[in-house]
Amino acid sequence: xxxxRRWDGLEPAAQGASxxxxxxxxIHLGHQAVIDLARxxxxxxxxxxxxxxxxxxxxxPDTPPFRLMNARARANRLERLGVDILYELPFDARxxxxxxxxFARRVLAEGLRARHVVIGADFCFGKGRKxxxxxxxxxGAQLEFGVSVADLLTGPSGRVSSxxxxxxxxxxxxxxxxxMLGHWHRIEGPVLHGAKRGRDLGYPTxxxxxxxxxxxxxxxxxxxxxxxxxxxxxxxxxxxxxxxxPQFGGAEAPNLETYLFDFSGxxxxxxxxxxxxxxxxxxxxxxxxxxxxxxMAEDCARARRVLDAL
Length: 310
Hints:
Blueprint: E1 2-4, E2 18-21, H1 29-41, E3 46-52, H2 55-59, H3 71-80, E4 85-90, H4 93-96, H5 100-111, E5 116-120, H6 133-143, E6 146-150, E7 154-155, E8 158-159, H7 162-170, H8 174-181, E9 186-190, H9 197-200, E10 206-209, E11 219-227, E12 234-243, E13 255-260, E14 271-281, H10 289-308
Parallel strand pairs: 1-4, 2-3, 2-5, 3-4, 5-6
Antiparallel strand pairs: 7-8, 9-14, 10-13, 11-12, 11-14, 12-13
Helix pairs in contact: 5-6, 7-8
């Protein structure tokens, strides 16, 4: 997949896509429906346009972290969906200041030379979010690109949305989130050095930073992990703790610590993708370290049972 981070001065080979537009945070089933409609709209490369940083981070910088995935995780998921070109446009003052008409003309028609554009029914664009689906249809007719609008998707629990997925994760319900996502919710990033307490306790963990992301319920999870690069690339089962480590005095910021079953090796610097499958228990402080180790053994046994049943 080709990743392009500008919208002007493009070579012809980077233009002319059938283009799905949106923030695609989480790439849930509704997002996938938009992408699938772009895939079949015309005979052209499949493109996705998204924005980095997320516009909400620009317009409401004091908002608590809300993103379900970082830019790298989003790109990895889009590549797996068969996207040919990802336009990850910098959401800056220049782009944010474009009117709806200027966005359609300068970005979509002249910059990207889009053959067809697909949006969700609730998509708004242009300065002040004054453009909507009807606006884009009219502008597409003037500027000679096709426009399709994907209906909003409803699942067993109601409308499929990033907001509903965040709520499910915050409640410790990763399976409910997965029903809306169409895949397990994953936390993805490099493996970092930590205090190495897990190794001393017999449970070496891969530590990951979760800053900037919406936090699921803190606690212990059964997980499926994928090492995306390096000599240990592959898929593994495991158990993970998301939280602030209350047994050891707590921490200023949560992190994710993942123990991979039946694994031995050095993962520092590798990129790990951890899928949350089932919430096992909240974080807790135990009477002593032996009690903690006994609970960890029980957590791992339970996680194995959960994952074996998938």
